[in-house]
Amino acid sequence: MTSTxxxxxxxxxxxxxxxxxxxxxxxRRSAGEQGLLFGPADGVPxxxxxxxxxxxxxxxxxxxxxYRQLDYWAxxxxxEPTIRPASGSGTQRLYSFRDILLLKVIKRLLDAGVxxxxxxxxxxxxxxxxxxxxxEVTLMSDGASVYECTSPDxxxxxxxxxxxxxxxxxxxxxxxxxGTLAELPGERIDGMTTGDHPGDELALRRQARxxx
Length: 212
Fold this sequence. Notes:
Keywords: DNA-binding. Residues 62-125 form the HTH merR-type domain. The protein has nine helices and five strands. The protein has helices spanning 10-33, 56-63, 67-75, 97-111, 116-126, 131-134, 152-160, 170-181, 200-211, and strands spanning 52-53, 138-141, 146-149, 166-169, 187-188. A hairpin with a 4-residue loop joins strand 2 and strand 3.
């Protein structure tokens, strides 16, 4: 941080530094309370199988959106199903875990009052990241703009500067989606479903992580 003009004296400079330190400490405390600080210890989930998809109703349930929203966002290119796009009458669209993660993030941003135009810009940036990279991102917003943070210091800087009115830690959202999908049916590209035991795929991944 830089400033212009003459410093009135060491005492004033020390007072300003102390004030800035208190502001930063308050910003760090706020970020911690909101669960916006992240790191390797957070236990970010591994991405699921690339060949496992979820139908529209399941994607809606996991993301907390309506089917009308899902359909509109697919038709306008905001979030399209990447496992199996709709290619004709009777074709069932299949959404990936990553697709559903983005859908849930969009819903959170909309609920916070962020415009769809700003959301589209943010999603375009997020789309360039892999699933693992996504879970290391925290989105901050002042209600008008969306900022992408990849370190705790960036989150604290925005909170301290008043630009981070609220935030969304994608790693936490990812774990929420994983937990929800564990109770919902999925479908493999080969046509087999996990409907009889909807949690099998995710449960096996969690067990594999626990056993090393």
